[in-house]
């Protein structure tokens, strides 16, 4: 049996959206189960996200420390952001986020991995890019506000991040998945064997 996720959609008898927020909403679906019974499922509807593991020529990853109110923590993360525009090209969104959050640009882009962050309760899909050949961005710096105004930036050796992940000291989903995927790719077929930056993404279809 091939170990591969496959698309499938069970019958929905009824659907409601009891809450609509600024960027996300909550949907309630009545879903027909395999035995014929109907079960109610509540989940967050999310536009999707992109994240960037930016790796410099010294083997360091660009990370950001930011306050996250739901978990009451300041978390070390990799640059990331929402896909605000339906059908937006995820590579363009990732390049924008790297510029806005870190004032950095990259010449080499590849897809590191695609994940569903919380598939039991949210339909958010994230594409994590690997960005290399880094340099300072051109143009005016992006004006930050709210939590982003308190952000800290650092460049941390990959090995230090791996140790932090395995020690339970680093918790951000995209950082954990990105760093461990980087190590797996590096020790496997190599980073140049990763998918191209414009690889199809069925979870969030886009125009090239």
UniProtKB/TrEMBL annotation:
Q: Enumerate the UniProt keywords alphabetically.
A: Hydrolase
The record places domain Nudix hydrolase at 44-178
One matching Pfam family is: NUDIX
PROSITE patterns membership = NUDIX
Any one GO MF term held by the record is: hydrolase activity
Instruction: Locate the coiled-coil region(s) and give their ranges.
Output: none
Name used for this protein in its record: NUDIX hydrolase
